[in-house]
Amino acid sequence: MIVVLKHGTPDDKRDQLIEWIKGQGLDVHMSIGKNQTILGMVGDTGSIDKDLIACLDIVDSVKTVTDPFKLCNRKFHPAPSVVNVSGVPIGAGNFAMIAGPCSVESEEQIIEVAKAVKAAGANLLRGGAFKPRTSPYDFQGLKADGLELLKIARKETGLPIVSEVMGAEQLPLFEDIDMIQIGARNMQNFNLLREIGKLNKPILLKRGLSNTLKELLMSAEYIMAGGNEQVVLCERGIRTFSDYTRNTLDLAAVPMLHKLTHLPVIVDPSHSTGMSDLVCPMAVAAAACGADGLMIEVHNDPMHALCDGAQSLKPEDYADVARKVFAIRNIMTQPAAI
Amino acid sequence: MIVVLKHGTPDDKRDQLIEWIKGQGLDVHMSIGKNQTILGMVGDTGSIDKDLIACLDIVDSVKTVTDPFKLCNRKFHPAPSVVNVSGVPIGAGNFAMIAGPCSVESEEQIIEVAKAVKAAGANLLRGGAFKPRTSPYDFQGLKADGLELLKIARKETGLPIVSEVMGAEQLPLFEDIDMIQIGARNMQNFNLLREIGKLNKPILLKRGLSNTLKELLMSAEYIMAGGNEQVVLCERGIRTFSDYTRNTLDLAAVPMLHKLTHLPVIVDPSHSTGMSDLVCPMAVAAAACGADGLMIEVHNDPMHALCDGAQSLKPEDYADVARKVFAIRNIMTQPAAI
Amino acid sequence: MIVVLKHGTPDDKRDQLIEWIKGQGLDVHMSIGKNQTILGMVGDTGSIDKDLIACLDIVDSVKTVTDPFKLCNRKFHPAPSVVNVSGVPIGAGNFAMIAGPCSVESEEQIIEVAKAVKAAGANLLRGGAFKPRTSPYDFQGLKADGLELLKIARKETGLPIVSEVMGAEQLPLFEDIDMIQIGARNMQNFNLLREIGKLNKPILLKRGLSNTLKELLMSAEYIMAGGNEQVVLCERGIRTFSDYTRNTLDLAAVPMLHKLTHLPVIVDPSHSTGMSDLVCPMAVAAAACGADGLMIEVHNDPMHALCDGAQSLKPEDYADVARKVFAIRNIMTQPAAI
Amino acid sequence: MIVVLKHGTPDDKRDQLIEWIKGQGLDVHMSIGKNQTILGMVGDTGSIDKDLIACLDIVDSVKTVTDPFKLCNRKFHPAPSVVNVSGVPIGAGNFAMIAGPCSVESEEQIIEVAKAVKAAGANLLRGGAFKPRTSPYDFQGLKADGLELLKIARKETGLPIVSEVMGAEQLPLFEDIDMIQIGARNMQNFNLLREIGKLNKPILLKRGLSNTLKELLMSAEYIMAGGNEQVVLCERGIRTFSDYTRNTLDLAAVPMLHKLTHLPVIVDPSHSTGMSDLVCPMAVAAAACGADGLMIEVHNDPMHALCDGAQSLKPEDYADVARKVFAIRNIMTQPAAI
User: How many folded domains does chain C comprise?
Assistant: First the structure.
């Protein structure tokens, strides 16, 4: 951490601050320039409140120089991590094709969709049982029954299953679910993250609508600090002023996260755009820029879907997306082909 | 809900959609113009997925015409509500002065601060026991012990107490807390909102960093739909591109919320700005534009606060803010004085 | 335009509004529901102020149902347009590879870069002569001399040239420039747009940092309404809360704009990210999702570039990007290959 | 400027960078910590490209420590400036009440409004002659004729006049206008700023919809660097995800700008909210938090206003706003009254 003092700071005030910093167990390097004096703190600055120092009378500004995330930081773990979901690896060249309906609605529906997406190349089945809905009056999911239907579809197809948990009290129901999803609105539900950190199970952590990459990594850090290092990150669009699509898909987050962390990064082109005809272009774009997987909503009858039908693909459209994605992956991972 | 059809839509496709809408239990009014045909749905459109219809081939756009929030809607409840917190009324001209430290740190600290803010005119004491922190490595609050210290301070001063809950499993500890705060990051923790809705206790619901007013009202609706109508809303700054202050305080939300809902609306000038010298200007501005109260962080020794010291006022500064706020309130509520 | 009246609006007030609307030369369709009355305006509503009506006492809300952009609207011109830049077509399957330095610095530099990007597959040369700089103290470009150097590079390589104009008074200097760029900060410099509309010359119109797609299209409309229909749109990143990259590249704007307009849409991965190692992933992603071209900054010696060196590629890196982009284009445009 | 090197940077690469920095005419202070080495540049770093250095292989991050704005910086000019508009001072306790119609429409209209706002306490008259409109098909203002009508209203009332210029070529028409407004969309029209800097005339510079305070100050710096130091800043709302009001009024910008600059800061509550019933609450809030003035739209017949009628007040409503604003100013500037 670096403290820039205001021009004209009296020496005694400066020394008082230096004493206070030393009192926190840190060393101080002082650099006196013509227009300003800079104090560099050396040691573990984790417990220092940057904003607090920034508010002192004599301080012009404060700059941090170390990342607050450690376990997920690529600096300390240069090789990309692989997260194994009941036999399906994600990351380091292994591509996740997660597909399925927004909500599990019936045994027929989930089995039909599961077979269709498997035939198209999906290797993981998603399905919502507990649904986060903005309105208390909207359909909230089949809950425990939905999870049971997912397991039946897994048995039928062999696809490991992914579903979203909305609160720590639901976790016992997820014991036999292969991968647990933390939704965007719960990305900073720290109590839930802490509980998730105690499990030995792959986690799909979605970026919040207004969260920075650093905050996403800090939430991964919460889970990893608890002992569970099987975290896959998911970019799913951020909230901006732009109003044509539901959210703004921040695809540059994919290569940027790959620079910052060793964790796998997948993309959800369905929720980010909210429009089924934008799913394919965003899916291939994500594959092109290096994503480690895709999560796509597929429904057998979008006109009657109980939620988020507008962004769901029909199985035949998903097959087309998958074909294009695999072709792109082929090109990008076999440089000789170029 | 109004559906604008694309120019040139064949009659049979249009009629098919009309049949589908009627199949959902709604009536349809059709208006055929020169360039476009418009379908108006009449009846309870709450279960219709707007985005789904917007994605149909023949549909140009869809417009909603009713608010999705009902219990908190001012249209159906024109008089402003009053929420009574253990004898302290908020709303309809009753002003809440909530003050106290970001975190409860010790008995001495909380009693000292409680006495100081009471002397300055505060009528409710706040203090964090469970702290939502972005980093798992930061101080997370004194937890249950912190709540006990708050009760001691209440006994000493008579001020009802307000503290933040972070998960439903903590609720039993809050039985004897006068008002429960839902933090910005939990505004859409729907499981928690549902549990809160079952209580008979005043709730302070903070707006999420990237949530619209409609979403804030839908979260209030979650609580009220459960039977608990004692909800106070709190504007605490939103996340924008602007980087000088921590968040952007959206003060126009105060009069706008007063148009939309009968619930009281208070303002938190501490967290929204993150800078102690902006607290006073934003507090008086909030009072001027009609807020029903203020929540302000006050600390007896900001240099050693364990969290968010940068935005906390010293007791003497709080007294100055309170004086100005009361003077403004005086002017604004006694039109004869102008 | 559709007007939703407030519940309980007296008939005489409603009729007064209807009279007013008719006085503006429009017809009115009225639809009376149980909870609300809806008025539909039929005719040319272009001159009606939506916000004004929305502020009337009896009005609950107002919805518009027609696009304000006409000449660039795909509804009225379904085939994609091709813009021809001195023999290089852009759009409808023709891909623009625009490359060159941020600023023209010297004859040697611009010729060296031009030859290198041409060898790598570029078909248009860019170079800044007039530079929009946030600070009055920064390098502002070589101005007229820079344009002359671009012409020399064009003569050497045969590549048509693209350069940015910053004000109408500079237009005479651009007479012999093949394509004129309107920068993001001038996207709503309506006076400049009007002057540009009088020219018979291809225009590259960049999206402003905080402009919606509708606003971008309205700015294209300004140019086209003047008679110049040779407009190419450019997505170059928008301003959001996200702070890791300079701006947030909104790639979903590419397929979305293709739905809304017949004009070609290219992408600038250099300015949007501000980081040279994100240019390649974003360039291939743009090609994958259907962009009609790319504008990429290339410099022969980034360490000494006078501006924006951080986002510029070295020629050998550009050649690598171009190879990957062409491979992706190949896959996406030859469905048989998939 | 401070450069944090990556852990494990070889000494020769570090020394190479140090040499390069010295080659730019700067001194370097090196601080070697356990985990990182920090280089501090000493001297005028104005010409160093921060982003360029940040992209070097060996560099972890770069921090700037000096403000890029100088002439408007409060550090070098601690007393607040007063801008004198033909006898009406703004700043340092002098409050500007700028009012008038969005567009000048007729002699009758502008004189009637001018008399009404003067009677209510306005000391400056505004009126749009050249109108920046998003659509080329909307009313663009009376242009030169509008400016003439403003002069007539000035003669009738004695109020100095303020009007917006949209391009440098219009400046000759503004010779006899008392204060020239630069609109939000032209805040970074650097060519126009440079021309404005050559005048000896008060300038009202509005903040752009997505511009940071630093960028606003840099635009003021453009004008001041040209020799014209009579700049008044205007906060008029920023673009965010929030969709209930047209823009989000960033009132904390007022006290923040007062910390950063000596220039006066006024607020426009009309454009920022776009709704006439939010103008009064935002106007009094602005007065409470220390603004040096207000610019408010007033119209004698909002239902027929040719533009932006929705946000305009009727004269009697303006009189009410003015009364409340003066009462607030009274309280805030006479501490003894509190």
Answer: 2
Looking at the fold, whether B79 and B196 belong to one and the same domain comes out as yes
List pLDDT tens digits, range A177-190: 999 999 999 999 99
Place of tokens 């009508």: D149
Asked if B31 reaches chain C (Cβ–Cβ under 8 Å), the answer is yes
A54-66 per-position pLDDT tens digit? 777 788 888 877 7
- Report how many Cβ contacts below 8 Å link chain A to chain B: 133
The pLDDT value recorded for residue A281 is 97
Q: Is residue C68 part of a domain?
A: no
**pLDDT (mean) for D46-70:** 79
Reported as a single tens digit per residue, the pLDDT across B260-312 is 999 999 999 998 888 889 999 999 999 999 999 999 999 987 666 655 667 88
Check whether residue B83 and residue B231 sit in a common domain.
Answer: yes
Report the candidate in A281, A330, C177, D324 with the shortest Cα–Cα distance to residue B287. Answer: D324
Give me Rg for the CA atoms of chain C: 23
Dist. CA B302–CA B266, nearest whole Å: 24
Please give the ipTM for the structure prediction.
Answer: 0.91
Which segments in chain B show pLDDT lower than 70? 302-309, 335-338
Q: Check whether residue A59 and residue A19 sit in a common domain.
A: yes
**Residue at which a domain ends, from D16, D43, D63:** D63
Give chain C positions within 8 Å (CB) of B35. Answer: 66
Instruction: Looking at the structure, tell me whether residues D149 and D24 fall in a common domain.
Output: no
3-state class (DSSP) for residue D209: coil
Q: What is the CATH classification number for the domain harbouring A49?
A: 3.30.70.1140
One DSSP character per residue, A114-130 reads HHHHHHHT--EEE-BSS
Q: Which residues of A are less than 8 Å from B275 in CB distance? A: 51, 54-55
- Assess B218–D contact: CB distance below 8 Å, yes or no: no
| Contact of B234 with B172, CB cutoff 8 Å | no
Helix (H) or strand (E) holding A283: helix A276-288
Q: Is A155 left (phi over 0), alpha (psi -120 to 50) or beta?
A: alpha
Which residues in chain B are closer than 8 Å to D272, comparing Cβ atoms? 252
- Structural domain including C86 reads 74-337
Question: Of C277, C323, B215, whose CA–CA distance to A209 is shortest?
Answer: B215
Q: Which of D185, D192, D211 to mutate to test the interface with C (most CBs of C within 10 A)?
A: D185
β-strand partners of A180: A163, A203
Q: Does residue C159 sit in the same domain as residue C134?
A: yes
Q: Are residues B18 and B160 in the same domain?
A: no
Give the mean pLDDT of D107-123: 97
Tokens at D130, concatenated: 């050249």
The domain that holds A98 is classified in CATH as 3.20.20.70
Q: Establish if D68 belongs to a structural domain.
A: no
What phi, psi does B301 have (nearest 5°)? -150, 75
D9 with D99, same domain: the answer is no
The domain boundary residue, chosen from B63, B84, B109: B63
Residue C206 maps to a domain: yes
User: Do C80 and C151 reside in the same domain of the chain?
Assistant: yes
Nearest CB to C252 within list A253, A256, A273: A273
Domain-embedded: residue A29: yes
Tell me the CA distances in angstroms from B317 to B309, D251, D297, D334, one per residue in order: 14, 21, 36, 18
Q: What is the pLDDT of residue C111?
A: 97
Instruction: Please give chain C's pLDDT, 338 residues, in tens.
Output: 888 888 888 898 889 888 888 888 888 888 887 777 888 887 777 777 777 787 777 888 888 777 889 999 998 899 999 999 999 999 999 999 999 999 999 999 999 999 999 999 999 999 999 999 888 888 889 999 999 999 999 999 999 999 999 999 999 999 999 999 999 999 999 999 999 999 999 999 999 999 999 999 999 999 999 999 999 999 999 999 998 888 999 999 999 999 999 999 999 999 888 888 999 999 999 999 999 999 999 998 766 655 566 788 999 999 999 999 999 999 888 765 56
On whether the CB atoms of residues B182 and B193 are closer than 8 A, the answer is: yes
